[in-house]
UniProtKB/TrEMBL annotation:
This is Spermidine/putrescine import ATP-binding protein PotA. It comes from Paraburkholderia phenoliruptrix. The keyword Translocase applies. It comes from the Bacteria. PANTHER family: SPERMIDINE/PUTRESCINE IMPORT ATP-BINDING PROTEIN POTA, SPERMIDINE_PUTRESCINE IMPORT ATP-BINDING PROTEIN POTA. InterPro entries: AAA+_ATPase, ABC_SmlMolc_Importer, ABC_transporter-like_ATP-bd, ABC_transporter-like_CS, Mo/tungstate-bd_C_term_dom, P-loop_NTPase, PotA-like, Transp-assoc_OB_typ2. One of its GO terms (molecular function) is ATP binding. The gene is potA. The complex is composed of two ATP-binding proteins (PotA), two transmembrane proteins (PotB and PotC) and a solute-binding protein (PotD). Its EC number is 7.6.2.11.
Amino acid sequence: MTHLTLHAVTRRFGAAHAVDSVDLSAPDGKLVCFLGPSGCGKTTLLRMIAGLETPTSGRIEFAGRDITRVPANRRDFGMVFQSLALFPHMTVAQNVAYPLKLRKTPQREQARRIAELLEMIQLPHMASRPVTQLSGGQRQRVAIARAIASQPRLLLLDEPLSALDAKLREAMQVEIRLLQQRLGITTIMVTHDQREAMTMADEIVVMEKGRIAQVGKPLDIYRDPVSEFVADFIGLGNILPVTYDGAGAVSLPGGARIAVSQAARVPPSPGDIRLLIRPEDVCVKAAPDAAGPNRVAGMVTFIRDVGASLEATIDCEGFTLTAATTPRETPGLTLGMPVFAELPPHACKLIAARTLQ
Ligand code: ATP
């Protein structure tokens, strides 16, 4: 049992709360992502788990033991940072061997473990190459191998892919995820990239201004965000100010009424409601199709057709919608075309509006 739990963990810098009373439990063997905009406290929280930063108050427990004040080098955690921090004067094998040397692992055991790790990251043929002669993705793999060399009980990753170009980054996301699942090592990763979090995480912790805004499985958060902030941060969304009429329907900005689900979620103050509908839930119908329930008239004002997917901007009376579809699903869509946008009730979520602070 290697359970990690945080109890009211707080870190202040002067008067400012970088992390504000965070309670969290990380499931064993899973990958948890801390996700949020720049400055929301993700890195500070990870550094406190690592032991590189001390909480101002609160408690961190690991495997049932209070580790709040245990120094980083006594925590048995593996870490990979944005900078990777590989030793440039060493070879691939020497970098991977470093934590084993520190622990005075016997030579024969070191050699066996290095061979196993290099096999795992698919670089066995590069053992004696200096790390300076590796590509970005290869360096990334070496950093991960080094972090897991001493079989840490927890793996901490701080934006480990941010220096890579988009394509390599996506490939590495899958690679790290598969490796993490194979090893079953509890992993905490910081990212500000929601797509990365959705690709890799078992559980996402969305952070806002030092606090947890929502914790859950990626798709649960995507489909059921608790606030406008979370809805906006996770994926693309149409977020419209609406008024709730008390009977499972809302009035859109232009006055059109549509039925919605989730009436129970309606916030107490009617002025504070937003309607969320994801672009892939907006069905675009050619205007000659009859108007029906939950259909609003509009006109196509922009089309982003990238072959595999198609995104259309639809100007309606009083608001604009984005619809995501495919060229095959909606052939013949053209700029200036009058259309109906259908907003299925089950896909219309009501959420609390972001409060200004
Ligand atoms: P980013 O994605 O930009 O790295 P983050 O979500 O990881 O951001 P943190 O680096 O944890 O955010 O910073 C949270 C807040 O704490 C920020 O306002 C930051 O300026 C502040 N902060 C972090 N470290 C220090 C420090 N050593 N001294 C003073 N303020 C700090």
